[in-house]
Structure formats: structure tokens, C-alpha cells
Amino acid sequence: RDIMFIYHIVPWNLEGRILYPLNELRTVLPHLYAQYIKNYENRPKVLKQWIPTLDCLWNDVLFLSPVHPQAVRLAYAEAGATLIPDLRCFKIDPAHLEPEKTSVWIPRTRDGHSEEFRAYDPSSLEQYSTLSDETVPYFRKEFAKGEKPLLFLHVPHILYRGRLDIFGIPIVEP
Q1: What is the b/e burial string over 30-42, where b = at least 16 CB atoms within 10 angstroms of the residue's CB?
Q2: Spatial distance between the Cα atoms of 31 and 51, rounded to a whole number of angstroms
Q3: DSSP 3-state assignment of 120?
Q4: List of the chain residues with pLDDT < 50
């Protein structure tokens, strides 16, 4: 069986070789923090969300995806996007993450399932590696409103409480 990887979008304005959680970015690279915090202007509640499995806030973690970026690009196209986002992503070996600093977040779904936080087990990543059935309809709805959808809204996330040194980590350009 092939090894599963997890992905993080390569920031267009990356400085150095470390990925920082948002709260840490505030002190380390405040000019970048000022840019990234704008992503939460319309959803400030998210920044106060508690992650019980990691005993920290939402903005104390890095968000990684077990879904290959090519699947997101295909869903975007299927939903009728005229412009497909640049999804250059770091392709991260799950063994690079410290399990005690890592958790899986399962998002809330429309069918009544509530969000859930689970223990991280690299051997179980495959179960989280596909897009939700809600992804393409959500993309279509956002496009119809003239909005830019959140790329990973209905997708489980791997949450990592810490910095990530990306030196030598390959980049996938689907």
C-alpha cells in the first residue's frame, strides 16, 4: 500500500522555511499575520474555537489536509469554476508530525452530524483522504453568489499544534 501524505498550501508570501500557526505568526512575522488575519474578518468566531484534544485555540494550530490537492482542483472544475486556484502544496510525510501535538478535526455536516475531534493516527489517514459529497454543491452555491468558496470547508483536517520546518519537503503542483 502506498504511503498517505498530508498537504499544506504553499503560502504565496512565504518567508523562511517555517510554517507558523496564526497566533505565533503575530509575534514572529507581524506583517504576514496582518495579511492572514483578514481571512477571518467574516468569521471571527472561528478564532475563539477551542480544540479540546490539543488544549488550545483554533489559531494555535496549522491546518493540514489529508486530501490530495488534485481532488480539490477537480471538484472546483466540476462545480463550474472558470478560474482554478493555484494549489501548490507541501507534500508532508505524516511521520514528520508529533502525534501528541496532532489531532483530526471532522467538520460539522448538513446531515446533522456535529463536528468531532479525534486522536491522530497516521495509519488511519486514508479514511479522511476524499472530499465530502457536500463539496461540489457548496462550490456551485458560492460561485452562483459570486463568492470565492473555502477550499476545504467540508473536509476533515489534520490539526498540528506547533511549527513545521518545511525545508526539503517536496511541493506538489497538481
Answers
A1: eebbeebeeeeee
A2: 26
A3: coil
A4: 1
User: What 3-state DSSP class applies to 58?
Assistant: helix
**CB-CB contact of 120 with 103 (8 Å):** yes
State the Cα torsion 24-27-31-36 to the nearest 10°.
20
The whole-number pLDDT of residue 109 equals 58
Q: How many CB atoms lie within 10 A of CB 76?
A: 21
Q: Which three cell numbers stand for residue 90?
A: 507541501
- What's the rounded Cα separation, in Å, for the pair 142 and 149? 6
153 alpha-carbon distance from chain centroid: 9
The residue type at 143: F
Per-residue model confidence (pLDDT) at position 2: 57
What does R_g of the chain's alpha carbons equal in angstroms?
16
